[in-house]
Write a structure and sequence with these properties.
By secondary structure, the chain is α+β, with helices and mostly antiparallel strands. Strands 2-6-3-4-5 form a five-stranded mixed sheet, covered by helices on one side. Strands 10-11-9-12 form a four-stranded antiparallel sheet. α2 packs across α4 (137-144), α3 packs antiparallel against α4 (137-144) and α6 packs antiparallel against α7. Helices cover 44% and strands 20% of the residues. The protein folds into two domains: 9-149, Ribosomal Protein S5, domain 2, CATH 3.30.230.10; 162-295, Alpha-Beta Plaits (2-Layer Sandwich). It is built from nine helices and twelve strands. The mean pLDDT is 90.
């Protein structure tokens, strides 16, 4: 989704778990199952374990937690532990999911009865740190779950698809930087404004047609629109050879549809399979050099609870 056009997004059954505990003082200690950890004391950061870039990776979590404390007018110390089954920096919204889970966990720790809208709003601060001017789509679906038709600054619409969505994610294993890719599209638009604007408008039409197809369970039409959308994204300059190879492999293996997801430039392809064909599709993606993940849509968004 670019320049005000809508997008369709679905939550998948990959989860993030954030465990929050109170600490003496005001430091915020964060540990991730990626093998990185450290402590923020105000603006000072000390790495406990990890590598170069550990602070950058953990700072959005700190900002999310601090935003909750500020909202509740509290000065407390925190210990946060992150466990995630979502690959990072590949277009699957991992940073947003972690931010949303952090807000919910810290809110629950201090008995804050946050609404879904409040969780969404607070978590948005951290995403601004990561992406500068994010759309909010990833936070929204992480909060609510389900399939959404999303346009920034407009009311989000739930798409009630009454059939299963058999999906496979093909991960190229190549990380990408969303901000840089958005800038590349902006520069290409400046060079060829009439062409790129037509692509943007066409993408918006595709999204609306796709939402209509999902509403009636027409997966064949929806898949065809996915292929067309990927072609538009190739023309916009955000695809790569690795992404295209996975799309071609998916089509050769009988996929109903496939397209890159996220900002492109690496990351993942989302593939819509025929019912019962996910395992075979995963084999095809593996042969094409991708790492497959068999997933399903989920209607469950963020949840918070107290552990015994």
């Amino acid at each position: 989704m670019v320049y005000g056009e809508p997008a369709i997004v679905t939550a998948i059954n990959r989860r993030v778990k954030v465990t929050a505990e109170e600490l003496p003082g005001t430091a915020i200690r964060i540990a991730s199952d990626l093998g990185i950890s450290g402590t923020f004391e105000g603006e000072v950061f000390k790495t406990s374990s990890g590598r170069e870039g550990t602070r950058t990776a953990l700072e959005p979590v700190k900002i999310s937690a601090q935003s909750v404390l500020n909202c509740l007018k509290l000065k407390r110390g925190l210990s946060l532990r992150i466990e995630s089954t979502i690959p990072v920096a590949v277009g699957l919204g991992s940073s947003s999911a972690i931010s949303v889970a952090t807000v919910a966990a810290v809110g629950q720790l201090f008995d804050a009865d946050f609404s879904s809208e409040e969780v969404f709003s607070i978590s948005f601060d951290a995403e601004r740190f990561v992406h500068g001017n994010p759309s909010g789509i990833d936070q929204r679906v992480s909060t609510s779950g389900g399939i959404l038709l999303y346009r920034r600054s407009e009311e989000t619409m739930e798409i009630r698809c009454q059939v299963d969505l058999p999906l496979v994610i093909g991960n190229t294993g190549k990380n990408r930087r969303t901000g840089a890719l958005v800038e590349n599209v902006r520069e290409r638009r400046e060079r060829h404004p009439m062409v790129i604007d037509q692509l943007i408008r066409a993408a918006g039409i595709l999204v609306n047609e796709g939402a209509a197809a999902l509403n009636v369970g027409d997966l064949k039409s929806f898949g065809e629109l996915m292929y067309i959308n990927h072609g538009l994204l190739v023309s916009a300059g955000v695809s790569t050879e690795a992404l295209d190879l996975i799309v071609y492999a998916a089509k050769a293996s009988g996929a109903l549809g496939a397209k890159l997801t996220g900002a492109g430039g690496g990351g993942c392809v989302v593939i819509l399979c025929a019912p019962g064909a996910q395992t075979e599709m995963a084999d095809g993606i593996r042969k094409a050099g991708g790492e497959p993940m068999i997933v399903e849509k989920t209607d469950t968004g963020v949840q918070a609870w107290l552990e015994e």
